[in-house]
Amino acid sequence: VMSGSVKSILNFYNDSVTAVAENVMFNYGKYNIQNAGDWSFNYVPENIFIREMDLKSNNAIVKVSGKYSFDSNSDIIVEGDNIKVSDFRDAISPYDSVESKDNPRTYSEGFLKEFYVNYKGTFEDPELILRAASSDLTLNKKNIGKFNINADFKNDNAILDVKILNPQDSGKLIIAGNLPYQNPLSENKKP
Prior knowledge:
Layout: E1 2-12, E2 17-28, E3 31-35, E4 39-44, E5 47-57, E6 60-69, E7 74-80, E8 83-84, H1 85-92, E9 108-109, E10 111-121, E11 126-134, E12 137-139, E13 142-154, E14 157-165, E15 172-180
Antiparallel strand pairs: 1-2, 2-3, 2-4, 3-5, 4-5, 5-6, 6-7, 7-10, 8-10, 9-12, 10-11, 11-13, 12-13, 13-14, 14-15
């Protein structure tokens, strides 16, 4: 079941529409998204300019800004910092609160010190940038270390650099590489 509500002020001009959304809430199953502060954006034909838009799901808050274009290049940034790993996990994959032998609850602690996603371009020719870094993480009260992730997708090529450091920073696992990948939304599909 999906439900939602929006309380907003709209201003209509000859060539644009501006909006300030004061109360926004959407629910879909176990997912809920709401505003954390006013949202402020402009619509100019074929473009939405997001000036201020903080999304909140459970306790995780991310900031969204930039331009979304319906007919040319977009440039959208989603970022957050000091997000509890448990809040981030629950926001993207709400758990079943009924704990049982077949469904044990895993307890994780720590923070995403940095979370950054940048989408540029169009669906047919996108550029995606992902940066994430954690503090020391614990899983069921055991320190498992921290991670840094850098990932990019551009020109049908994915580049990944992941570093996992153990709790004492005395060892690390590095996963790095690139993978050519044809964007399935591209009109220029190669045979």
